[in-house]
Every structure is written in structure tokens, then in C-alpha cells.
Amino acid sequence: MEPERLPFAKLFDTPFISLDETSVELSSILFLFLAVVVITRVRRRRQLVRRLVQLVSFAVFFFFVYSCLGVFGMIRNGLYGVSLLGTVYSESFYWLALPVVVLSVTLVAGPIFCGWICPTGTIQEWVVLLRRRLPFERLPRNRWSVGVLGVLLAGFVAATVWLSLEKKMFIEDSSLHWAAALILLCYLVLLRFIDDLPTRTLRLVSVLAIGLTAISHVAITSPVHFAFTARDDPASMLSTVVIAVASLVIARAWCRYLCPWGYLMGFLNRFSRVKIVRDPLACSQCHSCIAVCDVGAIDLGGVRPEHCQLCYACVDACERGGFVVVNAWRDGAPRVQLRGGRDG
Questions:
Q1: Which pLDDT value is given to residue 321?
Q2: For position 252, what pLDDT does the model report?
Q3: 165 vs 2, more confident
Q4: What is the dihedral of CA 278, 279, 285, 289, to 10 degrees?
Q5: Residue 23 belongs to what H/E stretch?
Q6: Whether pLDDT at 36 is above 80
Q7: Which residues pair with 299 in a beta bridge?
């Protein structure tokens, strides 16, 4: 492990289980499997349980996990681990372990990492919950949204100028580029210059950008990166603040428009075993499901798997049982097999 990447707030000096001078993140892997067991079995008060899982996940990633360096980290780590195959197997396993486990869990249990575990997603969801309880939720939508974004933009520019006085803005601070893009996209969506759904394809651009920089051996940092290292990384911290504040105006804006890992989760969700589908016979078109879906994965046509994070909020919010959970591997193409909102 490189000295400049040593974590500063971990509860242990090294990860668990050392192999040939490297380590396997057994704690995070075991936690993921435990979370899957809990998630697949819980029915009553599921959203409360989900909040608890998010809280524990937040602590695990910030105080136990070593290899993940933010939302870009698992992509870069996975590619680096692949490059080590055939040479240093133990180190390859170290960098591949967490990404491979998350991808495998997505295929078996759906994108629960995004909806239940991801710390970046948790930060955004907490901000959305706060927004719903604050007085400005009742203000005219576009007016206060544009106002909040204006204040955020002014603060972001001021902070960026201040950072540039301290050091040159190299590509290592590229998380600021993603933060600036997120502010711009939120503005354009709110002003209706661009539409929400087409804008989400930009997540693929993020994936390609991270992949190209990893292959080119260009070091870049991501939002939330500052929580995993001892390096002074104000750019990453500022980007994290931008992601959080953006959720005041567009729920989970980062997940919707720019998260590269979210794009990969959505792509795999097309082939995952667990699917949430709408029962048109039970649905009364009351739109309660649309109101509780923070990522806008629901329309009258059903659930969009590439955007769904399998938080089950729509299933739990519908009193008529308008959504059902099906086993797509067992039942073939997703279609309604059960009635009454039960989990299959």
C-alpha cells in the first residue's frame, strides 16, 4: 500500500488477512454478504431496516474499508487488479475483491449496493430526507431550486479560486470538473433546456473517462476520496459538498447524471435475478410510487431497470400492491407472477 494513500481514520492499522505483503478486505466482503441476507429476508418495516443498513455501511466504508477510494475507486481498482492477473495473484485479489463481490451481488440480488450500501448514495439520500422536512420544500420549485444552485455555484467558484491560490489545479483535482458539470446539468434540467432521462446517458461518459485515465496511468481523485486517505484533498471534499447540496434541488442528482459506478449497476440490473415490476391490474395510477422514487426510475410504463436501485420504496409505498418482486432467472423475462405486492 502506497504511503501517501494510507487512511487517516481507520479503526485498524491494516485490513484483515495479510497475503504476501498485501491484504484482503475480508471485513467489507463479509459485511456485503450479511447485508444481502438481511435485505432479501426483511419484509416488515423494510425502509427503516434500509436506513439502518445505510448507517452501518457508512461506518464500514469510512472506518474499515481500505481499497475503495471513492466512487471512481472501484472501477480503477478493478482495472488495476485485472492488470495484475498472471503476475501477483494476491495483490490482484486485493484490488479485485470488493468490485467483483459488488458486481456478483448485483447479478444475484439486484443493485442493492446503490440503494442500500453506497456511502455517496447515502449522503444524497440523507439530504433528500432533510429537504422534505425543511420549510423551503413548500416554496415554488424552480425559484428556490435555481436560488440554491446559484448560491452553490458562487460558493464553488470562490472555493475553487481559493484552492488555486494554494496549488496548481492539476488533473489530480479532476473531481472538481465533475462537480462543476453536476451544477451545470442541474441548472439545465431545472430550466428545461435538457431533459432528465437523456441526460442520464452521461454516466457512460464518466465510465469511459475513468477507464481511459486508469489505462493511461493518470491519477485522478473522486468525490468522497478524502475520507479514504491521509492526503490533504480539499478538492474531493468540495466535490462531496456539491453532490450533497445538489440533492436539495434534484434528488440523487449525482446518481442520475454522472455516477460511473451507478451506470455499471444499472447495466447489470438488466440481467439480474431480482426485478421489480408493476402490476397494471393492481395499479390505480395514484403516483405515490413516483413520489417516493428518488432516482426517477418509475413512470406509468413501469420500472426502468437501468435506473432502479432496488430500494423497494415503491413496493412499500403502494397500498394496493401495484408492484411485485419477481425472480427473472426462474420465471424468464420479467412479468407479473404474483398479486398483492408480495415478494417472490
A1: 81
A2: 93
A3: 165
A4: -40
A5: strand 22-23
A6: no
A7: 302
DSSP states of 244-261: HHHTTTSTTHHHHHT-HH
pTM for this prediction: 0.83
Residue with cell 439545465: 188
Q: Quote the CA–CA distance of 95 and 191 in Å, as a whole number.
A: 42
Helix (H) / strand (E) containing 326: strand 323-327
Burial of 128 (0-12, 13-18, 19+ CB in 10 A): middle
Q: How far is CA 79 from CA 29, 30, 43, 271, in A?
A: 19, 22, 37, 22
Q: pLDDT value at position 138?
A: 54
| Angstrom distance (rounded) from CA 113 to CA 123 | 14
Has residue 40 got a pLDDT over 80? no
- Grid coordinates representing 299? 413512470
Neighbours of 86 (CB within 10 A): 8
* pLDDT value of position 27: 66
**Separation of alpha carbons 84 and 153, rounded Å:** 41
Please tell me the number of Cα atoms within 13 Å of 125 on its side-chain side: 23
Name the pairing type of β-strands 302-303 and 274-278. Answer: unpaired
Per-residue pLDDT, 144: 66
- pLDDT by residue (tens digit) across 282-325? 877 888 888 889 999 987 778 898 999 999 998 888 888 888 88
265: nearest Cα among 50, 75, 80, 114: 114
* 3 state SS for 172-223: HHCHHHHHHHHHHHHHHHHCCCCCHHHHCCHHHHHHHHHHHHHHCCCCCCCC
- pLDDT band of residue 340 (cuts 50, 70, 90) is very low
Grid coordinates of 126:
440523507
